[in-house]
Design brief:
Length: 269
């Protein structure tokens, strides 16, 4: 690495951070961290990032991606590492918070009729599988609660508190999936003659600045999986390519400037 601690770029910092991770962790973090870096600019000095810019990034991600909590956590790990490595003076990770307004809006919408959610057949099948798995875990956690509650000698009974917390999270997730199951609308396969990008399509994008190619599958927000390259149709890239065709050039506004991609390939499922 050629840069000193005072002027290390975002790209160099990301490369160094990812190189220090285990292979399995690196695979999970790479796409999310690099997306964060591209947003501000690969050569942007890390020390130039401000708390306001970090908060804005978190807000944009929270409003466009249902998988934002997991992604924010991966970026937060990167920023915490940057502080420990003394690349930045303040802990910018503290400003990478979930947008509260979204949660309130979601709560209000659930009080009325559930909003229809469009899913691919694959996404719907995966959701059903996840729901069944969670329901199968319920008896096991309840049994753990009973066993922990019977331990009279454990002063603070941390296992009991942990098991109750696990059950609370599990029940919340089951309820969420059951609501999705009730309101899910399966996406119909596009006619073979359709050339326009839609949910379910696999695309290849060429970054016209770096020359790097990216492979994505456009899915509904519920199906987002950064590890497998599945991005939401309401994410910045998803919004830019929906309705476009192979050969088109799309632009996305970012603090680093306009990100320009050429759509190299479009393939339906």
């Amino acid at each position: 690495m050629n840069s000193t601690k005072d002027n290390i770029s975002l790209g160099e910092a990301a490369d160094s951070f990812l190189a220090g991770l285990l292979a399995s962790e690196r695979e999970i973090s790479r796409q999310v961290v690099y997306r964060f870096v591209r947003w501000f600019g690969w050569k942007q000095p890390l020390t130039k990032l401000t708390a306001h810019e970090i908060a804005n990034y978190a807000g944009k991600l929270s409003s466009s991606d249902t998988d934002h909590i997991k992604k924010l956590e991966l970026v937060r790990n990167f920023l915490v590492h940057a502080k420990k490595a003394d690349w930045i003076k303040s802990n910018l990770a503290l400003h990478l918070k979930v947008k509260k307004g979204k949660d309130k809006a979601t709560s209000r919408s659930r009080q009325g009729s559930p909003e229809a959610i469009t899913l691919t057949q694959h996404g719907y099948d995966e959701m059903k599988k996840e729901l069944a798995t969670l329901k199968n875990k319920r008896p096991q956690i309840i049994d753990e609660i009973h066993r922990a509650a019977a331990d009279k000698d454990f002063k603070e009974n941390a296992p009991l508190a942990a098991a109750r917390e696990d059950l609370g999270y599990l029940e919340g997730k089951i309820k969420q999936l059951e609501e999705i199951e009730k309101s899910a609308v399966l996406m119909r396969n596009q006619p073979k003659f359709s050339l326009k990008i839609n949910i379910g399509d696999n695309i290849v994008l060429l970054d016209l600045v770096s020359g790097e190619e990216f492979k994505y599958t456009i899915v509904s927000p519920r199906e987002v999986n950064p590890i497998k390259g599945k991005i939401s149709n309401v994410s910045p890239i998803g919004q830019a390519v929906i309705g476009r065709a192979q050969g088109d050039t799309v632009e996305i506004k970012a603090p680093a400037g306009r990100l320009r991609y050429k759509i190299l390939q479009v393939r339906g499922r």
